[in-house]
Amino acid sequence: MNRLVIISNRVAPVSEGKSQAGGLAVAILEALKRQGGIWFGWNGEIEERTQAPADPVLKQAGSITYATMPLSRRDHDEYYNGYANATLWPLLHYRLDLASFDAVTYEGYRRVNALFADKVTPLLRTQDLVWVHDYHLMPLGQELRRRGQGQRLGFFLHTPWPSPEILNALPAMQDLIEALCAYDLVGFHTRDDLGCFAQCVTATGAGTVELVDDGAWARITAADGRQLEARVFPISIDTANLEKLAAHAGQSETTQRLRDSLVGRALIIGVDRLDYSKGLPQRFAAFQELLDRYPENLSAVSFLQIAPPSRSEVTEYQVIRRELETMAGHINGLFADFDWMPIRYLNRSFGRRVLSGFYRAAQVGLVTPLRDGMNLVAKEYVAAQDPDDPGVLVLSRFAGASREMGEALLVNPYDTGEVAECLQRALHMPLVERKERHSAMLRRLRAYDITRWREDYVAALAG
Ligand code: ADP
Ligand code: G6P
Questions:
Q1: Cα–Cα distance, 267 to 140 (Å, whole number)
Q2: How much is the CA Rg of the chain, to the nearest whole Å?
């Protein structure tokens, strides 16, 4: 078997024992645990440096070799906070209003992609399968080609790929699409994403596209004559493991403490990075509407929202954090009683075991992003349920996961009235209906888990 080399901005070493909030790190770790290989990227540290960038430090943990290096303060500001998270992230999530455009940060983005290429090249062998992840590193394949790397290079985008109407706002759109054509395989979560990408390739003249298999696959001939493929690989979770973890954690002391604190009240749970794409203000407003419209829920339902801070140096993330603190305080001020707090709002991370117990204890999983590539929390919530008494998933139509989870109560997250109605329905859904909906989704999650995702991608990359 060829060696797998994974490259991503965020690397989450298993040895640190910390839980990383973020779908990419969670999924790559699960995938690499099985197959082994190298995982190259940023070590999460900022180096106040003036000297030349350090070489990656190699650490072995089981079958995974971590090769990580710090970023300089300037690279972190321009590439990570700047172009990746203040330009690309909002645009890819349809938030033109939040995107900033700045030639300096684009310069930094290209510079760090070139740096990653310089630093990873000495580690590569001719037979390696190189798999690059996410929007931080779109130009990396092209940089590797410029350094003479001829091996199979794949890219996977963990976010949505929006319509050309949105991406037209990006001055570097043409460059980035041409850069993506340097890979052999480009992967997306859904057919919609792939379809929009195909339109962008055609519209920019970066290549010609032939869509096959009902839009799940595209053969692309780049302008320079290179052949590549773009395909749909919906990311998933380690279903069997999570089912087991949740069954145990459901009985754990921590989950019992959560249950005790509810004193018989129903629990709605939300678990997200604190990101404006997750629709948290709308979710809080929907919960308020539930209490307004259906007062029988007063003192009878608690909403636990876990949202660890993310990208806190970027202004928009500071703004949303303040907004949510105000909203949670306001709603609790309006409705709380001396023995009941409607919203429990926690800005921290939990280990996977604890989280799975919390999912299992909740009657409703509330997952309402305004846009999301896939959303692993939706899948984790379903896998963590007790099959004999499962909770109900309320899921945004604008999450990639909604394509595979049609048995959830699908909602428009902007329509807070509709979300409130679905919450009420979920809280009162009969057991038979809950079981039917849950078992259909669980069956699919068992059949297409993280291992299938990795195997399918790697097989396609191996050609
Ligand atoms: P995103 O990748 O945009 O953050 P996903 O829902 O796809 O969204 O993935 C989030 C991942 O991070 C999930 O695996 C989830 O369990 C994990 N996660 C989110 N919040 C927390 C938290 N507070 N503690 C631990 N893990 C978290
Ligand atoms: C999303 C992105 C990932 C990113 C994660 C956490 O899942 O697609 O690339 O790693 O969020 O964000 P962070 O900026 O902390 O890496």
A1: 44
A2: 22
pLDDT band at 333 (very low <50, low <70, confident <90, very high): very high
How far is Cα 107 from Cα 445, in angstroms, rounded to an integer?
A: 41
**273 close to 21: Cβ distance less than 8 angstroms:** yes
Q: Are residues 243 and 253 in contact, defined by beta-carbon separation less than 8 angstroms? A: no
Dihedrals phi, psi of 178, to nearest 5 degrees: -60, -40
Exposure letters 311-345 (e unless 16+ CB within 10 A, then b): beebebbeebbeebeebbeebeeebeeeebbbbbb
- The ligand 1 atom at the shortest distance from the C-alpha of residue 271 is 20
Report the residue among 273, 366, 445, 449 best suited for mutation to probe ligand 1: largest number of ligand atoms under 8 A from its CB: 273
pLDDT the model gives residue 403:
97
d(CA 67, CA 61): 11
pLDDT of residue 21 exceeding 80, the answer is no
- Cβ contact 284:307 at 8 Å: no
| Rounded Cα gap, residues 84 and 93, in angstroms | 12
For ligand 1, say whether the CB of 421 is within 6 Å of any of its atoms.
Answer: no
Q: Which residues have C-beta atoms less than 6 Å from ligand 2? A: 10, 22-25, 134, 158-159, 310-311
Q: Which domains occur in the chain, in start order?
A: 4-236+450-462 (3.40.50.2000), 239-447 (3.40.50.2000)
Question: What number is the average pLDDT over the span 181-186?
Answer: 98
Mean pLDDT confidence for 54-69: 94
User: Residue 380 CA: which ligand is closest?
Assistant: 1
Q: Whose structure tokens read 């999983």? A: 365
Indicate whether residue 238 lines ligand 1 (CB < 6 A): no
Which amino acid, residue 127? Q
Return the H-helix or E-strand segment holding 48. none
Any idea which residues carry the catalytic annotation?
158, 372
| Ligand 2 mutation target, pool 26, 87, 131, 134, most atoms within 8 A of CB | 134
Q: 426 CA distance to ligand 2 centroid (A)?
A: 30
CA of 58 relative to ligand 2 center, distance in Å: 22
pTM over 0.90: yes
Q: Taking 70 as the threshold, does the pLDDT of residue 19 lie above it?
A: no
Structure tokens at 217: 């696959």
Closest ligand to the CA of 371: 1
